[in-house]
């Protein structure tokens, strides 16, 4: 008498193990396509940008400075940026957010 009731209650229990595995797999797929993949793409593009910078390029830093690269130290990953004829700033390559088209400094 009690065994049949216990067996019936166990069958009607919500949320089995297989459904939980499917739900976790769906969250993993959503996490990959919405968070991980776009971030890794941005990191790859930024590394290509840092590798392609050269002397004379006009750049925008993450701090908002706009200037022309005058010197690149490959071994230390620092660059010297000329803001105008009198001011030069030394920053790390990682802080360059964009390489601007030629002539941007003259138009400012």
TrEMBL record:
SMART domains: YajC. The chain crosses the membrane at residues 20-36. The lineage of its organism: Bacteria, Pseudomonadati, Pseudomonadota, Gammaproteobacteria, Vibrionales. This is Sec translocon accessory complex subunit YajC. Keywords: Cell membrane, Membrane, Protein transport, Translocation, Transmembrane, Transmembrane helix, Transport. GO terms for cellular component: plasma membrane. It is found in: Cell membrane. It is a single-pass membrane protein. The keyword Protein transport applies. GO terms for biological process: protein transport. Signal peptide: none annotated. It comes from Vibrio renipiscarius. Belongs to the YajC family.
